[in-house]
Design a protein that fits this description.
Length: about 290
């Protein structure tokens, strides 16, 4: 074999081994990790940047995040300004050209959806999302839509595996639709809820719950006594629950719940693991919080 032919064959072998390597995926949140795990399959390697019990708004770019992004083949982010406080800085530090905003390997889930509008007035200040409410992971139907869109993105990048990506996404969307319908049927009547922040607005897309007010007057700003007193006065004598995420400060929500005689439900917003079973279990937990 000539030297030229030898190196051509070696190059083909090496390129084939590179293509066969597992896809290195990074997801900003556990919910996005669920999408990545389901659609890409178990052979893909996954790293989730934000711990499940942390607020994805309020993080700092850490060395571990930067190292994961530097090695990644693909990034799944929520978008709609949820990670704006830390992800741009982490991407700049990682200097991975594949993951720049607008590149095919950076999948922004919110771009695949028509988001619910924020209920807060931007004139109030605080952390208001002008691009829409980014907490769509609280809607299983939305998660199914994201899985379908992510499958198409993966199919474009790895056409040989496109049928498998699409089949897994379709199966997951159908599973979410059926499971969420069964869960919602356990709540026989309409429920009322006061929420600490706007993330629970997506419950109304699949659960019989009306969100009737917010403990926060300004997103990200502790509520004052006048607002809390007004909230209590407005709903005195009614029945409902107070909902808040497990990373939010509890004192104000506790005061409102005790004054109204309503239960306070402190809930995780993310699955404990980036696995579909963990997300399905989370749907059960959310519905149970309203039913009890």
């Amino acid at each position: 074999m000539s030297a030229l032919r030898f190196f051509l064959v070696l190059g083909l072998l090496l390129s084939g081994s590179v293509l066969a390597q597992p896809l290195q995926l990074v997801a900003t949140t556990a919910s996005m990790g669920v999408i990545a795990r389901v659609v890409a399959g178990d052979e893909a390697q996954l790293q989730v940047l934000v711990p499940a019990d942390r607020d994805a708004h309020a993080l700092h770019a850490r060395p571990g995040m930067i190292a994961s992004l530097r090695r990644a083949d693909m990034l799944l982010s929520v978008g709609a300004q949820l990670e704006e406080g830390w992800l741009p800085a982490a991407l700049d530090a990682a200097a991975n050209p594949r993951l720049r905003v607008g590149q095919p390997a950076h999948f922004v889930a919110a771009d695949a959806l028509h988001l619910r509008g924020t209920r807060f007035d931007p004139a109030l200040g605080g952390h208001v999302h002008g691009q829409g409410n980014p907490h769509f992971n609280l809607s299983p139907q939305r998660m199914g839509e994201v899985a379908t869109a992510f499958a198409e993105r993966l199919a474009a990048l790895r056409p040989a595996q496109a049928p498998a990506f699409r089949q897994r996404a379709s199966g997951f969307a159908e599973q979410l639709q059926g499971h969420s319908a069964q869960v919602a049927q356990r709540l026989a009547s309409q429920h009322q809820a006061l929420a600490y922040h706007e993330e629970f607005d997506y419950f109304s897309e699949w659960l019989p719950v009306a969100l009737i007010g917010f403990v926060e007057q300004r997103p990200g700003v502790p509520p004052g006594p006048a607002h809390l007193n007004g909230l209590i006065k407005s709903h005195q004598g009614a029945s409902g629950v107070v909902l808040m995420a497990n990373y939010q400060p509890r004192a104000a929500a506790q005061r409102v719940a005790e004054a109204l005689g309503w239960p306070l439900r402190v809930l995780p917003l993310e699955p404990a693991r980036a696995e579909p079973e963990a997300y399905l279990a989370l749907l059960e937990l959310w519905a149970a919080a309203l039913a009890e």
